[in-house]
Every structure is written in structure tokens, then in C-alpha cells.
Amino acid sequence: MRLPFYEVFQKNEDGSVSPLITIQVGGMTMDNRCRLKGNAFQIGDISFGELFENEWDLDVELRDDVCVIRGAFREP
């Protein structure tokens, strides 16, 4: 399923972003208490910083109230 970046993440006052829902990336699960900046993780060959700066769409799968991020779309 394709979701826009800001349907999954919210921008925080300190410039970081937090998941709006529980997410899983590469086996790591994070909830809305996490604050991510810059290159916090990679999705394939795409860094989180690139996703954040460009607000790319995400390729996700919903599993039991967890949004599993599988990849990103380079063009929205």
C-alpha cells in the first residue's frame, strides 16, 4: 500500500520526526515516543534523511496495528 510520508510521520518542534503509528523498519519496531533525525535508518538504498527532506511516499504493509515500511517511491 502506498502512503504519503506525513500520514506515517509527524514533524516535531526540534526538527525531528516521530511515527504517528507504530512502525517497523528492517525488523526494528518504533512508536510515537521515538524521535528520528537525519539518517536514522535506511530503507533499501534510501536514507531516512532523504525520505524526510523529500517527503516521498512510503510502500507499507499493515500487520496487526503495525505499519511495516518496505520501501519508498521516488516520485510521489
Question: Short summary of the structure?
Answer:
This protein is mainly beta. The chain has two helices and nine strands, in the order E-H-E-E-E-E-E-E-H-E-E.
Written description of the protein model:
It contains 2 helices and 9 strands. With 76 residues, it is mostly beta strands. It has one domain. It is globular and about 30 Å long.
Number of contiguous helices? 2
Shape: globular
Query: Strand pairing plus helix content: what structural class?
Result: mainly beta
Query: What low-confidence regions span 5 or more consecutive residues with pLDDT below 50?
Result: none
The share of residues in helices is: 10-25%
Number of E strands: 9
For the residues shown, what is the average pLDDT? 84
Strands in their spatial order, largest beta sheet: 1-8-9-4-5
Quaternary structure annotation: single chain
Task: Please indicate the count of domains.
Answer: 1
Strand-residue fraction? Answer: 35-45%
The helix/strand series, from N terminus to C terminus, equals: EHEEEEEEHEE
Radius of gyration, taken over Cα atoms and rounded to an integer in Å? 11 Å
Query: Biggest sheet: strands, sense, closure?
Result: 5 strands, mixed
